[in-house]
């Protein structure tokens, strides 16, 4: 009798373990689905609000931060991220991004803001320079901006990378922060000019 009772208990335990493990598998699938939805939502929010994620602000396969950039900063409350530039910053850009086989006229989308409230001089401008050639001078607004700089194919040269230099006319010094702050970027996009 005791042996039958033990066998019955063992059968019940085996059934419970099997049921729990199958539920756990479903929970893992649900968790993965929730994570996928969350990532999709984050991508949409990031794109809509121009809040580019840490990976972009630390460089990509086509954009590398070179000289003149401070470390990434983030606001954990909003999820926003940005990176300050000194008076002059250099980005290295792949001339054929995304595995392209030919060079094209390119667009550099610059997202950011200027700390006007901390500038001693109100005259402020940004120069965009490609391999030593000034491509454009830009006077940014007092609000966050998106600015597109067109880089003609003729300036891309024959190499795999170009230097894209951003230089500002003045920098801000904020109380309690010893850095020279030229402008803050929330990201860059480097892509071919769309066909017209």
Q: What do the pLDDT scores average to?
A: 79
Low-confidence stretches: 9-25
Report the order of strands and helices.
HHEEEEEEEEEE
**How are the strands of the largest sheet arranged?**
1-4-9-6-7
Q: Which structural class best describes the helix and strand composition?
A: alpha+beta
Helix content: 25-40%
Total count of domains: 2
The CATH level-2 architecture of the largest domain is identified as: Sandwich
Shape by Cα distribution: globular
Assembly status: single chain
Describe the biggest sheet?
Answer: 5 strands, antiparallel
Euclidean distance between termini CA atoms = 87 Å
What is the CATH topology of the largest domain?
A: Jelly Rolls
Q: Report the portion of residues in β strands.
A: 25-35%
Alpha carbon gyration radius: 26 Å
Number of helices: 2
So what's the CATH class of the largest domain?
A: Mainly Beta
Count of extended strands: 10
Provide an overview of this structure:
This protein is of the alpha+beta class and 196 residues long. The chain has two domains: 1-49; 54-192, Jelly Rolls, CATH 2.60.120. The protein has helices spanning 2-49, 54-57, and strands at residues 63-65, 69-74, 81-85, 88-94, 106-113, 126-130, 133-138, 145-151, 161-168, 183-192. The strands form two sheets. It has a five-stranded antiparallel sheet with strand order 1-4-9-6-7, with no helix packed on it. It starts with a helix and ends with a strand.
